[in-house]
Fold these 2 entries.
Entry 1:
Amino acid sequence: MRCHEIVELMTEYLEGTLSAGDRAKFEQHLVGCEGCQAYLAQLRTTLRVVSLMPDEPISEPLKAELMRAFRDWRKSA
Amino acid sequence: MSWLSEQGRQPVPQGRRAPLTFGPDVAARRVDPELERLKSGDEAAFEALIRRYHGLMLRLAMTYVRDRGVAEDVVQETWLTFLRSLDRFEGRSSLKAWIFGILTNVAKSKRRKESRILALASFLRVYDADSPRPTVDRGRFRGDGDWIAPPDSWSNVPLAKVLSGETMEQVKAAIEALPVTQREVILLRDVAGLEADEVCQLLSISAANQRVRLHRGRVAVRTRLEDYLR
């Protein structure tokens, strides 16, 4: 496998869905290829950054409304 | 209202409720302490749930409906539907997979009411999203398929920059620019942390399709970061 094929298999590699044979070929390539190692490192960093993306906070009036709905639900249960 | 039933299971037919038995299915089911607290009416548990998922739900809703006000309505309706069906939820899927399942269904039914132009535009983007084009510019490789100039591993970029607010803005912009089919998968997998099979069930897509969309979405974010993290 060449670099341009390896880069397309990176998510499958990270997901653990490559066949045993493809996984062996993938890892064999990776050992000898700094470019593909770097690309995989970039993808791992990307995943980490995406997972840390901050959320917008909920508005206080809506939160109060939802908490009221929760109390109503509990009373009717 | 099939989306009210838990993902991946046939709903119990009306008038034929499943008897309460403790077969292997029940035994294999993990008791979720958070779910138990919610069902018992623990306000702090509900507040924590809202804090954890609300922002992400809003982001996901805005994948399907453009208008922020409509997206906020979608999230609110999702929470209310969640409460209405909480007593019936037995924990066969994870709590978050169930919540995001309700959200995508509420959002998609709202989207159907939006304009035809938007529907056509998103159709074209869907069509484009699943094309088999390579995700890395062929110009980065030599004729034999090896890198011309290998990428940088970012190992020399200070962590403070990698995790900075500006980087997060880049990521957010990159995700917002994705076609809907990739955006929903990357948000559910990499932001909400759902499992691959949960996302396949929720979006009714194959495992292979889920991986292709996830890969294209991640690569698009990576490409944006490559221009920024130098």
Entry 2:
Amino acid sequence: MIVVINGSTHEVADGTTVAQAVHTLTSATTGVAVAVNDEVVTRGAWETTALRDRDRVEVLTAVQGG
Amino acid sequence: MDDLIIAGEKFSSRLIMGTGGAPSLEVLDQALVASGTELTTVAMRRLDPGARGSVLDVLRERDIKVLPNTAGCFTAGEAVLTARLARDALGTNWVKLEVIADERTLLPDPIETFDAAERLVADGFVVLPYIGDDPALARRLEQAGCAAVMPLGAPIGSGLGIRNPHNIELIVEAASVPVILDAGIGTASDAALAMELGCDAVLLATAVTRAQRPDLMASAMKAAVVAGRLARQAGRIPRRRYAEASSPMTP
């Protein structure tokens, strides 16, 4: 299936979890947050939340600003 | 100097720093230390796998409380989502709410800001909204449960100082939550003026991070905020049209 992670299209196996999607970008688990289709997936649910075809995954962290 | 208290939390520094605009994390680190700040804003952006070092490491190392903002949001919905992401990433329910109207002025959108503030307060956030220098909106946001109000002195990054001191005074007079002058500070006298007008704190970034010597300007801002606070508490003399001799005129 196809998912979009931070704007880039990825072909991933069915059943790929949010945790696995995050791991394609970083091994960090603190200071990082995830939204799937504009809804927050809290860190405790990353391992158990499976992505679906065409999901939009946003992986954010804190940067300099404000 | 007396403590600043926001939502029950005490700060001995009344200078809140932003982290935007610094040429490197090293320069930022030195400026933050020189400023004496205990509360500092960060923005939330897509994770860049190639990024080296993190502003979070700097803040953790210096034991500075992180205040995530919603910079870059144009609608209440975007701001609420960003605040929730920041809460999950950073483990804080504090948020500097920033919803801008357009990219040219970066002025805050009052309608979207108020909408987002109501939703975030209902969701348990400690909300510090960035707003125009509008006393009516400041009052409405306080009534809606915001923990502070953050009126601008002038547009973000403009360094134009406080364009409407009278409105800032009106906001201060009516507020029972902290008033934090945010945006527009160009140099130390602007920060001192904000405090003399009765603001409880000053938030600034560009004035320090883009100064020729950021650490030196950070020291200047620290001193200015203290001086302005003390002057406010001391009570300034009334302005007079003509001279008033300070020693007897008769021999």
